[in-house]
Design a protein that fits this description.
five-stranded antiparallel β-sheet, four-stranded antiparallel β-sheet, alpha+beta
Length: about 675
């Protein structure tokens, strides 16, 4: 298939995409979130206040979602499919490594936070990719001699990502200056929060895999494309007609002001500037490119009519979030969609109340223009004087226009609207009682019920997020790691070094969520886990086979994670890690030795005890008995030291570790 045919297929597939762009409700939802409502007052003297129901809903949900997905523990995990120890170990490694990538990718907190917030406003789109790019940097040093330069050069050359290094020597201010110009191959995983208005997907699909085309548009400069590895000559040939003329970045930032002036070209042969902005289309098209009758997924990077990249790609590297899923549809609604209706009504009510108060405080008048000085009457200021033109005016010469106050009645409507919103969103209204009697009629049972309902709705959103977008993210990153990473990587997890080599992964692991499981809040979970830990300890004390040290460690570890402790090794020893348990075993043996020594010392002075309880005649017998006991205890002590020494020798040979002290009494 030639490029012309491929371009036609891409354009045809894009034309059939759903209108999830800016023309849809995305723009409206974002306006409601920011308070920039399209409904403006008819006149400048009317109230333009805006209710913030959508903002309050999204922001009240967000702390719980951030705490759930961006906390110390992993929101999802990979489960082994067999009983093989290798399978179990690889599932644990995969969970730790994918979680490490997500939380340590560039600007990950902001990206993930925006993604989840987008999912609550309209829908969120996250792209994940493996980046290989060339970076250039300069390091300048002044006043260094040749030996120091050699040491610096040696350190720089030890960088495994180093591609090329150039040393430039010069003189500046009578000081020797050395500049190292370094080129590096940078490899990393990147998460990109895609504005939903720039996302494209085939209409009428229930999952990503069913879509003929999935992708997004992004504004990049020529410099960006060259840094991403695309051919420099081909990028420079992109014509001026392929510059960004859609203004896709202006859609979201149109209220920031400023003129949209294109950067003037720099003086070069092609008359092109590296800062020219181009609309780049990253598309994943299902097409039979090789003509074998089977459509495969291909990654196509297109600028205007020019295709910069075309390669086979097995997965779709996007993850989609919607707080409220719709059956048989990929993209659902955000909770802002529900709060939007309430915000419309509340805005109308608030404006009406404020306009009414303004009219009550500033009433109009009915005046006879021939008898009243109209200029005085039209001048609205405190303590104004209205002059009359003649004496003996009639009673109807100047009369106020009475405006009835509607605030009390409007507040009743506001309370009704708040209650409807609370039922829909599970959000506790701050003004449930508009007077003291109504407030005190709220029972503790009802308040707890509303609070539980709100928790249940947030837990449901968390479970939906975990089973949709986060599942796609974890599974997609695991695929990328297995296919693109060709070397082992050292990470630090829970305070210990862990070497990950994805090349050894041979098992397909199932992903399961650990959040949104109706396990209640953190305090309840901690209390329940503490009770479970006590139960397991009692089982072990009674010799039941229902529990062991590893099970107790697992429960304590989960309890520590709920308490927000990242480095478990600071508070717990893993019974399966000898380096962590040897010190504890040594301390226990030292304690036993001290107890035996105390018993020996006590038995070696029987005379003082004998004088208290027996006469002189019985002392000889007591002393003889004590001597026998001393000899027995000495034999037991010598046997204990022999057994202890042999045990330490076995531990040292087994783990190749020298144990200081070895539990002796020296």
């Amino acid at each position: 298939m030639d490029d012309q045919r491929l371009r036609h297929l891409v354009d045809s597939a894009l034309a059939s995409c759903s209108d999830h762009g800016w023309a849809s409700s995305i723009s409206e939802n974002l306006d409601y979130y920011t308070g920039d409502l399209p409904e403006k007052p008819e006149h400048n003297y009317l109230s333009g206040v805006t209710s913030r129901d959508v903002f309050d809903t999204v922001e009240s949900d967000h702390p719980s979602l951030v705490r759930t997905f961006l906390g110390a523990h992993s929101p999802l995990k990979f489960n082994p499919t067999t009983d093989s120890q290798v399978d179990i170990q690889q599932a644990e490694e995969k969970t730790e490594y994918i979680n490490y990538i997500i939380k340590n990718s560039p600007n990950s907190f902001k990206v993930l936070s925006d993604w989840m917030k987008d999912g609550n406003i309209s829908y969120g789109v996250l792209k994940f990719e493996y980046i290989e790019e060339e970076t250039v940097k300069e390091l300048k040093y002044k006043g260094i001699d040749e030996s120091e330069q050699a040491l610096l050069l040696e350190d720089l050359e030890n960088d495994k990502n180093l591609k090329e290094i150039e040393v430039i020597e010069s003189e500046e201010d009578d000081l020797r200056q050395v500049t190292f110009k370094i080129k590096q191959d940078k490899k990393y995983y990147k998460l990109i929060n895609v504005p939903p208005e720039n996302f494209r997907i085939t209409k009428g699909v229930a999952c990503l895999e069913d879509a003929e085309i999935v992708g997004h548009e992004e504004v990049l400069t020529r410099s960006d494309l060259i840094q991403m590895g695309y051919d420099e000559d081909e990028v420079k040939k992109l014509s001026e007609t392929e510059l960004d003329d859609k203004g896709i970045n202006d859609r979201r930032f149109s209220n920031e002001g400023g003129d949209n002036i294109t950067t003037l070209p720099e003086a070069n042969d092609d008359n092109h500037s590296p800062n020219d902005e181009l609309t780049v289309q990253f598309m994943y098209l299902k097409v039979d490119y090789d003509g074998d009758g089977i459509a495969e997924r291909r990654r196509i990077v297109k600028v205007g009519t020019t295709i910069l990249d075309n390669q086979q790609f097995e997965i779709i590297p996007y993850a989609i979030l919607s707080a409220i899923p719709i059956p048989n549809k990929l993209i659902g609604y955000g909770r802002a969609e529900i709060a939007k209706q309430s915000q419309k009504i509340q805005t109308k009510l608030m404006r009406s109340i404020l306009d009414n108060i303004y009219q009550v405080n500033n009433p109009g008048f009915v005046a006879h223009y021939e008898e009243i000085n109209m200029q005085d009457l039209l001048t609205n200021r405190p303590n104004r004087i209205v002059r009359k033109k003649k004496r003996g005016l009639g009673a109807d010469a100047l009369q106020p226009l009475v405006t009835p106050y509607i605030g009390d009645k409007a507040l009743q409507v506001t309370q009704y609207v708040d209650s409807k919103k609370a039922n829909s969103l599970g959000i506790q209204s701050s003004n449930q009682g508009l007077d003291s009697d109504a407030l005190y009629r709220e029972t503790a049972t009802r308040f707890q019920g509303v609070q539980d309902e709100q928790k249940a709705k947030i837990e449901l959103v968390a479970r939906v997020y975990a089973e949709t977008g986060f599942r796609q993210l974890y599974e997609g990153l695991a695929w990328m790691v297995a296919h693109y990473q060709n070397e082992a990587f050292e990470i630090k997890v829970l305070g210990k070094q862990l070497s990950i080599d994805p090349r050894a992964w041979r098992y397909e692991h199932q992903v399961s969520t650990t959040v949104g499981l109706a396990a209640d809040d953190t305090e309840t979970v901690v209390a329940n886990m503490g009770a479970l830990l006590s139960l397991l300890e009692r089982y072990q004390e009674k010799g039941f086979v229902l529990s062991d040290q590893k099970k107790i460690y697992n429960v304590t570890k989960m309890l520590a994670e709920k308490l927000g402790i990242d480095d478990i090794t600071k508070v717990l020893n893993d019974p399966e890690v000898p380096q962590q348990t040897l010190l504890a075993q040594n301390e226990q043996l030292m304690g036993l030795v001290e107890q035996l020594q105390a018993q020996v010392q006590q038995l070696q002075n029987p005379l003082a005890e004998a004088e208290k309880i027996k006469a002189q005649a019985d002392l000889v017998k007591a002393q003889a008995d004590n001597e026998i006991e001393i000899e027995k205890l000495k034999l037991e002590t010598e046997k204990f030291f022999v057994d202890t020494t042999r045990k330490y020798d076995e531990l040292e040979l087994k783990y190749q570790t020298d144990i200081p002290g070895k539990g002796t009494n020296d």
